[in-house]
Specification:
With 307 residues, the protein is mainly beta. The chain contains 1 helix and 28 strands. It has 2 domains: 32-143, Neuraminidase, CATH 2.120.10.60; 146-307, YVTN repeat-like/Quinoprotein amine dehydrogenase (Methylamine Dehydrogenase, Chain H, 7 Propeller), CATH 2.130.10.10. The protein is globular.
């Protein structure tokens, strides 16, 4: 059995947080490039981006005027990043987050996650919306997904792309997003995120404790019951292949047998956790959640040795 992870607070929210501060604001996404870590969130006109001042240090919040709430973020490089959110918001930075430029999305729909695959930048949204840019974010066009359900996340597994969302929706593309095929997930709950060990072995998580795995690329999906009743929001893997997931009420989950069995880890927070990120080079894990929460842990040395 793997050693227990020792989690610590990196961004506690003081109770005297002033009006307009982070108290009560959710951080929906945490990501980074190397040891530099970023988080994005907020609701309504309370959009906020956080940036670690240096590896392992405190975070500084950056507000960009009347910025709509943000839901997703992704790094193309150490300098170039994207954030997306409410009312069709897409913003790009090419100087590591010091300044941001708004990009035209062509929609007022809420946008949830952003992910890059090769020369493409993909963004998910309401009503089956999947936007794609092939010119470094200068322009975005809608792809024909064949679904109308809200798409909450998009991710890559080798050359394959998968998007997941409401109603148990899973769609897959093996031609760079030109065409998409729908897969039968066997569930009706919203699916929030996914990760793949290979094009065949993929794990998807979602609301109501939903955890699905496939070993044949999505031809068949298996549901793993009784893990948690909370909404499972994000999943990733250690270099050794152990799955890690976060859920509501500060729940942290681990599986060493690719989803066959899970155990819950002691947590340092009871805030709803939305996002999880691992830096494979340092073995550092970060999770973000409601109330401006950011917590972190380091993989045990035995697991870091596998990197």
């Amino acid at each position: 059995m793997s050693e227990r992870l020792e989690w610590e607070w990196l961004h506690p929210v003081p109770r005297d947080d002033p009006p307009g501060g982070l108290h009560g604001q959710p951080l929906f996404k945490i990501w980074g490039w190397g040891e530099r870590v970023y988080a994005a969130g907020g609701l309504g006109m309370g959009g906020v981006i956080l940036r670690s001042l240096r590896p392992g240090s405190e975070f500084r919040a950056k507000r960009l005027g009347a910025l709509h709430g943000l839901r997703g973020g992704w790094s193309a490089s150490a300098q170039e990043m994207y954030v997306v959110g409410e009312y069709g918001t897409i913003m790009q930075t090419t100087d590591a987050g010091r300044s941001w430029t708004r990009r035209a999305s062509g929609t007022r729909a809420c946008l949830y996650k952003v992910f890059g695959a090769g020369e493409r930048v993909l963004v998910t949204g309401d009503g089956g919306l999947l936007l794609c840019s092939r010119d470094g974010g200068e322009s975005f066009q809608a792809l024909a997904t064949g679904v109308e359900q809200r798409l909450l996340s998009v991710f890559g597994v080798g050359p394959a792309l998968l998007a997941v969302g409401d109603g148990g929706t899973i769609i897959r593309s093996d031609d760079g997003g030109a065409s998409w095929s729908r897969q039968e997930s066997g569930v009706s709950k919203p699916l929030c995120a996914g990760w793949g060990r290979s094009e065949a072995e993929i794990c998807v998580v979602g609301d109501g404790g939903t955890i699905l795995t496939t070993t044949d690329g999505g031809g068949t999906w298996r549901r793993h019951q009784g893990v948690t009743r909370g909404d499972v929001e994000d999943v990733c893997s250690t270099p050794g292949g152990e799955l890690l997931a976060v859920a509501g009420a500060g729940v942290l989950l681990r599986s060493s047998d690719f989803g066959e069995s899970w155990r819950e880890e002691p947590s340092v927070t009871d805030e709803h956790l939305w996002s999880l990120r691992l830096d494979p080079d340092s073995g550092r894990l970060h999770a973000s959640g409601n109330g401006g929460t950011i917590i972190a842990a380091s993989l045990p040395l035995a697991q870091r040795a596998m990197i």
